[in-house]
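Consortium newsletter contribution from the modelling node. Members have asked for a concrete example of what our holo predictions look like. Here is one, prepared for the 4'-deoxy-4'-aminopyridoxal-5'-phosphate complex that several groups have been discussing at recent meetings.
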Amino acid sequence: AHEGILHRQAQRESAARTYARSLPIVPVRARGLTIEGADGRRYLDCLSGAGTLALGHNHPVVLEAIKKVLASGAPLHVLDLATPVKDAFTTELFATLPPGFADDARIQFCGPAGTDAVEAALKLVRTATGRQGMLAFTGAYHGMTAGALAVSGGATDVRVTRLPYPYDYRCPFGAGGGRGAEIAARWTESLLDDPRGGVPAPAGMILEPVQGEGGVIPAPDEWLRRMRTLTADRSIPLIADEVQTGVGRTGRFWAVEHSGIVPDVMIMSKAIGGSLPLAVIVYRSGLDAWQPGAHAGTFRGNQLAMAAGAATLAFVRENRLADRAASLGARMLASLQGLAASHTCIGDVRGRGLMLGVELVDPASVTADRPVPLPDPRLAVAVRRACLERGLIVELGGRDASVVRLLPPLTLTDEQATAVLDRFADALAAAER
Ligand code: PMP
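And here is the predicted structure:
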């Protein structure tokens, strides 16, 4: 069955398939960190549905919540009507919002994907401000629909001004040592304040508190506070894309909490649906310039996703899983840094909480003019393959696809973390040869 399914889907599906190309497995069962393939092999899943599975696969509280809705006879499709399930989800979500946000928040159900919520956020601030331009960052990833793509790294759109995101290891200003963030902030300020700078008054600024697909790059807290101040001073709504960083992943319930900033709009998806598709934006009520019907969508009321999501949010909150992600993540980060000390092919180890990245480089590429070695995407592919052979699923990211990303569930045990790190170290040693 395993080979047949892989073969047929490879023939029938689009050439754009991504995960399926690098992970030749046919998952048939899963629980927690573990996925079992049709061939009977078991894997530790540190991709977690691209960061979706805060509680791992098929967590009992999530399954119970879904079963409860199914058993109740409630309608599964309700457009955007109010239901008890939606009420419970919204109440639970609002209870998690950063201080200073919940009292004055509005929610718009989008859906079903993260990229839909990004579109809604861009449209909301454009409607509210009557302006068109957007400020976005190098290396960003916001989704695959036209608006979200336009604000993602590498894309070009006349309405989008690209600003430097602080990436200390490959600092575009050659500064490093954390000073690049200061230069990037000043550059942004001077650009916005120069009447001849060519940046029309923007409708908003969109950023990820930790760039995920861009290579697991946490923004320094001080830089985020600078972005908050400079946007507030110029009446530019600040949009935080917490699609990947939310629900405890980085060690706080929402990643913006590390810096203490309160954005004007938060984009949420992935983990808020407890493994089912769900996406929302939450924003300051003052931005609610939409008329009824201004933003629609057939699949805005997925009852199963809301029930699974409410159960997930409650479980993360009650069990303080954000704290757990912080402490276990720090331990894993330290362990990976230890590995870097004995492997020159590891250029940088980064992360926050259980969002970890290992940037692989070619140490032989260092020259007097180029102290930071070039990325090594081929080694990264080899490491991912070696991980898979050892029963560990990881994914690559970064501007050169040379960063190995680890996004384990927040329910990861100490023993599982050790197993993940051991397999990774073993795979690295094998791939390096
Ligand atoms: N924003 C961020 C920060 C993301 O990481 C992603 C998905 N990786 C998206 C938006 C898009 O979400 P989706 O794939 O559900 O459209």
